[in-house]
Amino acid sequence: MISNPVARRSGLVVQEMENEVLVYDVTRNKAHCLNGTAASVWRECNGERTPEQIAEGLETQMGATVPVELVWLAIEQFADSELLENKEFRRTTQRSRREAIKTIGLATMVSLPVVASLVAPPNALSSSSCVCTSPAACATQTSCPSTANCNGLGVCTP
Amino acid sequence: MLRKKQNEIIRSSDRLSLCFRTFGVDVELISNEKRLLDDAFAVASRSLLGNISLAEEHISDQRQRFELLRTGNRYYRVLLNGEQISSGPTRWKFLKFFDGLLRVTVGEHAPNLVFLHSGVVAWKGKAILLPAHSFDGKSTLVTELVKLGAVYYSDEFAIIDEDGNIHPFARPINRRTDDGRFVPYEISLADLDASVGEVPIKCGVLFFTKFVKGSRWQPRIISKGEALLELIAFTLPIRVNPEFSLLVLNKLVDDAILLSGRRSEAKLSAIRLLDLIDKSEK
Fold first, then answer.
1. For the residues of B98-164, what is the DSSP string, one character each?
2. Residue A156, domain extent
3. Domain total for chain A?
4. Substitution target from A18, A22, A123 for chain B, most B beta carbons within 10 A
5. pLDDT tens readout for residues B145-191
6. Is A97 found in the same domain as A151?
7. B203 neighbors B167 (Cβ within 8 angstroms)
8. The whole model's pTM is what?
9. For labelling alongside A140, which of A48, A63, A150, B17 has CA 20 to 30 A away?
């Protein structure tokens, strides 16, 4: 078993931006946006460093105090989003995120790591059209006001 | 006699078909009724603004295969690549559904292009993109922007090439009545006296907005990452070609002003949006 966090690389499309990273999981059709702090932690998760060592490395990079709690907060979000190879990687002592955030907030100027996620529409039709021939046609169009009501004019309406 | 023959339902072993290419996608239409095939082709040609070139049969194994079938009891079925997508008894509804399905399918599979469900107008040479779901008020806002002098590009799709340039797709603007019946109608570009875009342009503003009655005008600037994440929901080829889609979307947002926020009445929102853009350029 790997004892350090390893960022998943396979089955992902990664778009690096100036301060963020967008990760698209092609196996789950789910997109994740990592803010600057989360992206920094994710880049350091190579299986060779412990969370404590990652925190130390980030302190040097950012020139600011980086508590290990902050690294853990990012790692837990990666695990929840299935962005770790070893998704079972968790800290042994459980601590609520609220408690962790309180501790971090007092200890650093670095922004909290955030991973925002979104599932891609199930098919292209669901993202763009509300035309229908029957209620069944509306059922596949998840962006329409109703997924069940095809009115007499061929539109899935509220 | 000729009419009778045209309406004749053809045995399943004798189905008629025709193939065409549009936006780089090979499409095959198959039907068991000659008139239905002709009508479907006419719908396709109008739907894709004439961007169609007829081709030899079975031009590519990768073609999108639409089967438009009429059964004996005047019931219509549409299959895409062998899978039934919809069915119904009303011919015009059926053809209207096919119209939407065809565009979406082409948008999903067009090579070297990314189709985004979005309104598009140009203001001072750069595009304003308004990605939104149906019923969010996209066409209404596009109409008001055009009335204020913006150049019309599309009220349905932003078609983006590999360099991040947006191409015009200027179909008539589709609206629905707001009387609770949602009767669809079209506004012709001539009626609006609209200038229509002819050349590809870069994105100047990307604005995620939806109509919410009584909401305050408080658009906020969002990051590139937030914008890309939001765009996923409107990107037709995201599941088919995520790598190319994200590459193009990244180029799209590169130098754009990225905004998000609710809007109330369309005319006032259009004035405020153009004012905001003008001020940001000073």
1. HHHHHHHHHHHH-TTEEEEEEEEEEETTEEEEEE--TTSSHHHHHHHHHHTTPEEEESSEEEEETTS
2. 123-158
3. 2
4. A22
5. 999 999 999 999 999 999 999 999 999 888 888 787 788 888 888 88
6. no
7. no
8. 0.89
9. B17
